[in-house]
Amino acid sequence: MTEFITPEALTALLQVIMIDLVLAGDNAIVIGLAAAGLPKDQRAKAILIGIIAATVLRIGFAAATTQLLQIVGLLLAGGVLLLWVCWKMWRELRHSHAEETQAIEALSDEDIDKDGKVAGGAPRKTFAQAAWQIVIADVSMSLDNVLAVAGAARDHPNVLIFGLVLSIALMGIAASFIASLLQKHRWIAYVGLVIILYVAGEMIYRGVLEVMPYLTSA
User: Fold this and answer.
1) pLDDT tens, 1-36?
2) CA angle 147-149-155, nearest 5°?
3) Rounded Cα gap, residues 146 and 57, in angstroms
4) DSSP-derived secondary structure for the chain
5) What is the pLDDT of residues 48-87, one digit of tens each?
6) What is the pTM of this model?
7) What gap in Å lies between CA 2 and CA 63, rounded to an integer?
8) CA–CA separation, 171 vs 173, rounded Å?
9) How far apart are CA 106 and CA 109, in angstroms?
10) CA–CA separation, 31 vs 108, rounded Å?
11) Which of 14, 16, 84, 133 could bond to 163 as cystine, CB 3.0-4.6 Å?
12) Phi, psi for 169 (deg, rounded to 5)
């Protein structure tokens, strides 16, 4: 328990909480957008598949990533991958307000824009198309989440475990609330983006220091 009260651990913990909050909301928006084009009776099933897949993938990636980051050179590779995650997040933050509203309507099953329909403006699709889009997005975003949390937690395993449990809880319990919160308060998402960018930069810096002895001795 004392690990959580050192300044370094508290800083890592705050970074992890913000990363989880932003990426859970981002993942929820993607799931909602994919499910929004389905009929009401299929929408809830597709969203449930998305949340279960995201949970299972986070657990699996967490087990693998914490081990892989111990391999020389993969910390650097993980930092570079997180830079790509930042670019992807930046693009997703520029989704139109209408698109995000459709996604949140699908997640919450509420007519937020008062047009008489829930996610009525989303393009229609089959259940198979929506499920495939959700699973593909979950693979990418779960890896993003685990990498970012592992990078922020650094040498604090308890913070890492807390971050992964929080990530799973947020996806399973509060996905629609967080997506709605981030839509209303866009600055939270931008703060999260800056933190992930910082974590990526630190991973790259530590990764370069890690591989330099091997490069200079070659």
Assistant:
1) 455 567 787 888 888 888 888 888 777 777 777 777
2) 100
3) 9
4) -GGGGSHHHHHHHHHHHHHHHHHHHHHHHHHHHHHTTS-HHHHHHHHHHHHHHHHHHHHHHHHHHHHHTTSTTHHHHHHHHHHHHHHHHHHHTTS-HHHHHHHHHHHHT--TT-SSSSSTTSPP--HHHHHHHHHHHHHHHHHHHHHHHHHHHTT-HHHHHHHHHHHHHHHHHSHHHHHHHHHH-HHHHHHHHHHHHHHHHHHHHHHHHHHHHHHHH-
5) 888 788 888 888 887 777 776 677 777 788 888 888 888 8
6) 0.76
7) 24
8) 6
9) 5
10) 12
11) 16
12) -65, -45
CA atoms lying within 13 Å on the CB side of residue 121: 16
**How far apart (Å, rounded) are the C-alpha atoms in residues 53 and 172?**
10
Q: Cα torsion for 38, 41, 46, 51, to the nearest 10°?
A: 130
